[in-house]
Amino acid sequence: MNRKIYLDNAATTKVKKEVIEEMKSYFDEMYGNPSSGIYELGRRSKEAVENARKTVADFINADEKELYFTAGGSESDNWAIKGVAFANKDKGNHIITTKIEHHAVLHTCEYLEKFGFETTYLDVDEYGMIDLEQLKSSIKPETILISIMYANNEIGTIQPIEKIGEIAKEHNIIFHTDAVQALGAVRIDVKKQHIDLMSMSAHKLGGPKGIGGMYIRKGIKIDNLIHGGGQERGKRAGTEGVQNIVGFGKAVELASKNFEQYVSKLTETRNKLMEGIKNNIPDVVLNGHPTMRLPNNVNFSYQYVEGESILLLLDMDGIAASSGSACTSGSLDPSHVLLATGLDHGTAHGSIRFTISEETTDEDINFVIETMKNIIEKLRAISPLKKNM
Ligand SMILES: *Cc1c(COP(=O)(O)O)cnc(C)c1O
User: Fold this and answer.
1) Most buried one in 68, 142, 253, 256, CB count within 10 A?
2) Which residue's alpha carbon is nearest to atom 6 within ligand 1?
3) What digits encode the pLDDT tens for the residues 356-386?
4) Which residue numbers delimit the Aminotransferase class V domain (predicted)?
């Protein structure tokens, strides 16, 4: 059996053909430096960068002057949090985030604690949702930044971003959101949702790796990230990765076309997979919110079995999935996200995340359900964890 089914699109996505096509000529034809505006080759590169900037900015209802290119989601998260913390330390030293953030946020907050900053890590409920009342009661006079992810990469839960934005605005606190998983999957409007800073990454929506973006609302005080030339209005120096920026722009352009159709088709396929697993395999627990979740995310815990064993058997059948997040598989610590939702270690260990794409067919879904059914039966039959069978 040579079937290959890639269901790890939250880890990264295949680069779309149209994106590759668009990028190609920026390697060997239009290879000018965007800063060399004195001749045409340079101007063409500059134009390509600015066109991509406008495409991405339009997609999130930002002004193109508020959009900065970075090397990806991790860089944007680092910049947002460190940049705001250091630039606003005269106003306070307190940051509010959640227990389920990506490590690019969590480890940055931990780093800042060495410099006298303090962090409050908000709890989440069993569905991975924060509590707006706890957010409000965590605000202190010293709070300078709220950083709460838009949608979680492991369990897919989507937070009430607009309400968080309103609370931040009322208290005059800067609001950053890591929207790496949300971009291209939900409608984002930075103005309406009162978002001050937002992290994005191209490779999670069909673009190339190593390129991302950050939205910075006009007037937000933030330290420059890279000192050097005047690129990105002096905030992030270094010759632009023109071909990557072009690829990011194209990926966003494709995502913005037929957006509603794409999302509803994805949701339909996701629901088939969710229902199929729930109805065919006993003793499973859905992780994440049943409805307020990303249209491509299916995450269940399978009682009495180890996620790592499931992954190995899935791989033998040509199915790529993930247990916990890609960054943590390889270590045996259960995912911090699943533990934060209240799962015990055993149940957290038995979790598998499938993240589908628009290429995922009904045939794929049926094959995955059937394969999972067999794998779980096989593993439970030999499981030392399953008592009283
Ligand atoms: C993938 C991911 C990141 C990191 O993005 P990179 O571009 O890979 O650095 C950050 N946050 C979330 C929620 C992600 O899913």
Assistant:
1) 68
2) 73
3) 999 999 999 999 999 999 999 999 999 887 7
4) 5-366
